[in-house]
Write a structure and sequence with these properties.
Layout (H helix, E strand, L loop, with lengths): L7 H21 L6 H8 L3 H7 L3 H15 L9 H17 L3 H11 L4 H25 L2 H21 L6 H21 L1
Helix pairs in contact: 1-2, 1-4, 2-3, 4-7, 5-7, 5-8, 5-9, 6-7, 7-8, 8-9
């Protein structure tokens, strides 16, 4: 007798349902994820979905974990400006393609309602900024990493999500120059 954990049918069901949930979350946001829609998209009954994920938050948590697990960042080359530029343009593309902003909006909107959602917000932020944080950490003093990260990601979020304007290469280059200039100015006074 096989246990549920090693049963390939259960593993396939879990994969299919989480894939369907992630697709719905990216396409429609949190409001588009219901047990009925997930079941329909995954090809399973609502009862099956409810059995493994009793709440909508269970479904969304599994989907966000999967999204974070497969997240990739452009490889670093060792050239600070070039690596920041590549990573920021990749981040801007993720924002402008419309999926990352929906995920972020969902967790930001609901973070004060649940410890689980706060943890998801942290997971998304840490996963999404891991590449940039690593690049900055390899080149800057530790005291400059988090403020630089906040300036870089914050500027892109405002530009793409709030202003609705694409983050062009010229914008990213100017942003990198301004942030690195501020770091150099702080170093020279310290």
């Amino acid at each position: 007798m096989t246990s549920e954990a090693s049963d390939p049918r259960v593993a396939r069901t879990r994969r299919d349902v989480v894939d369907a949930t992630a697709a719905l979350l990216v396409e429609r946001g949190w409001d588009g994820v219901t047990h009925a829609e997930v079941a329909r998209h995954a090809g399973y009954s609502k009862a099956t979905v409810y059995t493994h994920w009793p709440t909508r938050l269970d479904l969304i948590s599994a989907a966000i974990e999967q999204i974070c697990d497969v997240e990739h960042h452009p490889p670093a080359t060792g050239d600070l400006r070039a690596d920041l530029r590549t990573s920021l343009l990749d981040f801007a593309t993720d924002l402008s393609d419309g999926h990352l902003d929906r995920l972020l909006a969902g967790v930001v909107e609901r973070a004060d309602t649940s410890e689980v959602v706060r943890a998801l917000r942290t997971r998304l932020y840490e996963t999404g900024t891991a590449g940039l944080r690593s690049i900055l950490g390899a080149h800057l003093d530790a005291v400059d990493v988090e403020p630089s990260l906040a300036l870089l990601t914050g500027a892109l979020l405002v530009r793409v999500t709030f202003e609705g304007v694409p983050a062009t290469e010229a914008f990213v280059d100017d942003l990198v120059t301004r942030v690195l200039s501020a770091v150099e100015a702080r170093r020279s006074v310290a």
